[in-house]
Amino acid sequence: MLVRASRPPKVAFVLPGLGAGGSEHIVSLLCNHFAAQGWAISLIVFEEPSVPSYYAYRPEVRIIRLGMKSRRRAAPAGMLAMLRRQRLLSRTLEEVRPELVVSFLTRTNILSLLAARPLGIPVIVSERNNPALQMVGPVWSRLRRMTYPRAAGLITMTQGAMDWFRATMDVKGWVIPNPVPPAALGTDHRAGGRTIGAVGRLVPQKGFDLLLDAFAPVAARIPDWTLTIWGEGPERKALEGQCARLGLTDRVSMPGVTEKPGEWIARTDIFILSSRFEGWGIVVGEAMGAGLPVISFDCQWGPAEMIEHGKSGLLVPNGDAAALGEAIASLCADEARREALGAAARERMAQFGHDQVLAQWQSVVTSLLDRHRVRAGS
């Protein structure tokens, strides 16, 4: 069903900030996709106005920075800050008056639902991680159980995440995977070197400590290979200290976030996902789409939905650093297998193409807009 009213749809996306993460990436794709169709698109973020966006937006997308990003606080102060953010978001929605809100990430989703409900604005919430393993705290967990059933719908990236939510609360939902950007599918990854690459925020979830533990025992067997971890985060000092203890300082680099999205692809020969858990693993899709051979922990959820083990990539038991190390050493020593896995990976990612995934989002959003307009008599 398509929105048939004469006026263009008016949709607001809500997101914590405009950094380099996977949620920020998909929001940029969606905002640009709908804006290109003449829709009135606003993007509301809690970040400060001075913070630049990592991803590019069309000039038609109105970006509203509220200047009140969430920070860790003690319980009473945290609750007051949450209420202030909710009121600020509510005032902003009242000013923008979208027909539909699309919100991303748990705490922001809850605030969006609380802020939009008195205004009668339907809200789609999207979870981008593994709800069974991502800890949001008891207060936010209770608020999620209270508010999510009021949402117009929930979108997850994996069936496992959707099943968890449906077992926990009464929600209507859709499973839509992350797309592989056209730029990744069109990239020739051939770095021409010997670089093992990993990408992600430097936090425990991403398991870069496990990756270092995996690389250390096999590094001497692959002396011409180096490991590069792109990303930034609070675990940098701990990871640098671990590198020193393992004697890997000269073999491992952590250059931070790439200046432009996806620049790491052309500098990588083998891609590793070492996450303890994932919502999907957008970097896996980007790497596979570019024809990189990929090795991943078989973590919940996402990698096994992209990688056909032994054909379009390699899966190793979740958290097994020794098995990951052996898989890395084996693949580094086998150029023919790297080429075969990379070629099959590119073919596999065609199923998660940009146009196909955005069409799924469009179907959900337009059907809910139609329903809202019918109810509103417009």
From TrEMBL:
Entry keyword annotation includes Metal-binding: no
Signal sequence coordinates: none
Span of domain Glycosyltransferase subfamily 4-like N-terminal: 21-172
Ranges for domain Glycosyl transferase family: 192-348
InterPro entries on file: Glyco_trans_1, Glyco_trans_4-like_N
SUPFAM superfamilies: UDP-Glycosyltransferase/glycogen phosphorylase (SSF53756)
GO molecular function, one term: glycosyltransferase activity
Similarity comment text for this entry: Belongs to the glycosyltransferase group 1 family. Glycosyltransferase 4 subfamily.
Name this polypeptide is given: Glycosyl transferase group 1
Natural source organism: Sphingobium chlorophenolicum L-1
